[in-house]
Amino acid sequence: MATFLYKLGRLSFRRRHLVALIWVALLTLAGVGAAGAPAAGNSSFSIPGTEAQKAFDLLEQRFPGTSADGATARVVFKAPSGEKMTDPGNKATVRETVKELSDGSEVARVTDPYQAKAVSKDGTIAYAQVSYKVSGMELDDASKDALEDSAQDAREAGLTVEIGGDALQAVPHTGSSEIIGIAVAAVVLVITFGSLVAAGLPLLTALIGVGIGVSSITALASALDLGTTTSTLAMMIGLAVGIDYALFIVSRYRAELAEGREREEAAGRAVGTAGSAVVFAGLTVVIALVGLSVVNIPMLTKMGIAAAGTVAIAVLIALTMIPALLGYAGRKVRPAGEKGKVLGRAKAQDAPASPNLGSRWASFVVRRPVAVLLLGVVGLGAAAVPAASLELGLPDDGSQPTSTTQRRAYDLLSEGFGPGFNGPLMVVVDAKGSDDPKAAFTAVGDEIKGLKDVVTVTPPAPNKAGDTATITVIPGSKPSSVSTEDLVHGIRDAGTDVRADTGANVLVTGSTAMNIDVSQKLNDALVPYLVLVVGLAFLLLIVVFRSILVPLKAALGFLLSVMAALGAVVAVFQWGWLSGLMGVEQTGPVMSMMPIFMVGVVFGLAMDYEVFLVTRMREAYVHGEKPAQAVVTGFRHGARVVSAAAVIMIAVFAGFIGSSESMVKMIGFGLAIAVFFDAFVVRMAIVPAVLALLGRKAWWLPRWLDRALPNVDVEGEGLRTASERGDGDRELVRA
To answer: Please, what is the Cα angle at 190 between 188 and 196, to 5 degrees?
Structure first.
């Protein structure tokens, strides 16, 4: 591995014009494709095999032309103070609005509030429901504009009008905090390298990599049904790892220069050593992201694969474009120890090396490993306590910012008709196998009326064949509540009894039931996913470190950091701690895909720091240092860079906390706090403490396994041997 990457680094340094041209051409090609592609929509949460999806499919078969999965909009009207929606003037305005809404070519039907009895008991609020023939992703802009124009006409007539439903989705934005995150990364890079040129290289390559990745996603979004969130998450992860991977290679390049090597040789060695760590670190992230496909949720699979593709691009750019740009930079990138013009010059290179902060900290931990280990574990355990109260759900209009019309429509409907009105349940009764379908429909309705937390049960609405009917159930609680989830399970349990008595099959669907099924699917997949990803990465790390205990320690440390991060997410987004500071306007259940997504992404990123930090220790140990001294040496060379990389990643992720989309905001916070816990508590404190306690046992590997494993030479021992023999330009020999 090191030999191949060494040659690749030198080749990229020499052929820098060709390498730069290739990457610029790829960026241009992706940009042109993105510019000419249709806009991405919002991916649905539908899952093949769930009861809610089966019910949707049944509706399509038995109620042809109803567009069961078509977009819907609820146009909510509120009368001025002191007036009623039943007043003649207000009534005329609403009916005129309904008429305007019915004119669209994609509109399937519009309900009149006065005929459908969709007026609140106090007469102040009414709503008209618009059903479309196509899904929200396929809805034309003209239809959305017509919906907004009709609402605006009613507002000008004196009514308060808001629009809910999935027909009019708010466009998510991240705000200025994303730019602040990149600015923080730039400042950290300048401080780390002391040079604007050296600091600019990781930023430039990361932006090019993210540009190619996100543009490719945008170009393929319509064809592959990739939602807007997919590109946002790919940008978030790709930007963070892209900067970090480039940072490690540039840092190693400067260290090689400081040892007196020529620039081309230094570039080759930097890619051969730090580049090996980049490859394996990137591979763990890709495994974790691609592994999301085991959950069998199409949207999550696409998000994982898209983000993994962006990470793969970041790895390739770090291995090829960084050495090419180092060739262009020439002497403007100085050896380690020379700070250049930005921060002034350091001491002369021949001055005796004094312990830096990293080596002093590592020496402290090696002297007191038990105290540091206990403090780190207890601290993370305390942070993880709120995770015991974790409640999962999926965001709806109630989680939108109060500035959006969807959220205001949600609040108006709750005010006029009760909180459960925003999450109606659709019960589909398949009586094709029943002797008396009508009796079966009635029996189902009667069973549901006797359940707890039911406000309204509409009469069964059969299809033309009379073998299938739909029943709408209005819960007493809001859609994301535990009570509504219990009601869904209660209806399904009651349906089992009805099936035994009548032969009819009862299915519960609707957006609320679909969200519940998605959450359950994610919960069931979490443990298998964790076993798969951690197992594969464990095997990979055994190959990298040639040790059993070091990968085991890495996996256990990851579990500590991810549980602590989940605890922090619960405290902020579910309990409301520091919610004002984080811009959380509505607390509630944690997004159901958050735990499994955090496990995947954080595990990959945690292994990044493990590989970068511990490979330096392994390198020192292989070169003859004692275990305790190898820990100190690893920190002397790697702690500063790993700390800078962690701060950069935290800043990039934290930048997405400013997003208007609750899912992106929550993921940005969760990943930022998880990286903080993992980098500064687990990798900087617990890891050296454990290695100090284990001593030589940390690097133990059974002889039979040592012979069976391939020698990937992450430490660059083969390069060291070749250099000593003076034939670095010839075929390198592995140690």
So the answer is: 150
